[in-house]
């Protein structure tokens, strides 16, 4: 089994792509090679292949990165399944993971959602999508400042609040308040729950 994230940038026309596009490329390049494992196409859409247990964390990293830019958000459709054809370009590869992800993106666009998952298991789909709906209440409302702190901590979990405060030129109490508002501890618990749930597949 593999995981495919198909995503598109919300409100991309309201922001200069020269600001966010290099950052998005750098993030995905830090994980794997392009175009075999990730690709950006049509200007503001992308596809990424990763391991099943890492996919929720990578979705959070993508979300927190894009939300650091004012007015921007990202829609993410996670497909879990097989890969029956591997091409040199991810957008030309195929299998149920790709189909699940691509169809799901179209579906959540029409529903106004920003995160959903489709696997071969209806019970897992139901449980995780309810979880994602709750989680989205938080991360869809992250401010750019909150998203920046979340992203920094996801990239480097060893960072202390004092180190973050110095890096962002704010007080340690401001870091603490933003993490509380973002329910960061709950996000980490959600990631652990996701890994256990996905292991049932």
Description:
With 201 residues, the chain is of the alpha+beta class. Helix content is 52%, strand content 16%. The protein has a five-stranded mixed beta sheet, with helices on both faces. Strand 4, helix 3 and strand 5 form a beta-alpha-beta unit. Helix 2 packs antiparallel against helix 5, helix 4 runs antiparallel to helix 8 and helix 5 crosses helix 7. The longest helix has 18 residues. The radius of gyration is 17 Å and the shape is globular. The mean pLDDT is 95.
Write the layout of secondary structure elements.
Blueprint: E1 2-10, H1 17-29, E2 38-41, E3 45-50, H2 55-67, E4 73-81, H3 96-111, E5 115-118, H4 122-139, H5 144-155, H6 161-168, H7 172-181, H8 184-198
Parallel strand pairs: 4-5
Antiparallel strand pairs: 1-3, 1-4, 2-3
């Amino acid at each position: 089994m593999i995981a495919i994230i198909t995503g598109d940038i919300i409100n991309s026309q309201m922001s200069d792509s020269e600001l966010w596009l290099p950052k998005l490329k750098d993030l995905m390049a830090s994980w794997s090679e392009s175009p075999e494992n990730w690709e950006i196409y049509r200007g503001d859409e992308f596809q990424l292949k990763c391991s099943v247990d890492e996919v929720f964390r990578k979705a959070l990293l993508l979300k927190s990165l894009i939300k650091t830019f004012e007015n921007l958000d990202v829609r993410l459709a996670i497909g879990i399944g097989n890969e029956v054809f591997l091409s040199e370009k991810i957008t030309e590869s195929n299998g149920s993971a790709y189909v699940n992800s691509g169809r799901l993106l179209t579906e959540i666009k029409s529903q106004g959602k920003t995160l959903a998952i489709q696997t071969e298991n209806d019970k897992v789909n139901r449980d995780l999508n309810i979880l994602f709906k709750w989680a989205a209440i938080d991360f869809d409302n992250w401010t750019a400042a909150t998203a920046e702190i979340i992203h920094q901590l996801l990239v480097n979990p060893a960072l202390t609040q004092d180190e973050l405060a110095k890096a962002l030129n704010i007080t340690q109490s401001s870091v603490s308040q933003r993490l509380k508002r973002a329910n960061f501890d709950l996000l980490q618990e959600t990631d652990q729950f996701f890994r256990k749930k996905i292991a049932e597949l």
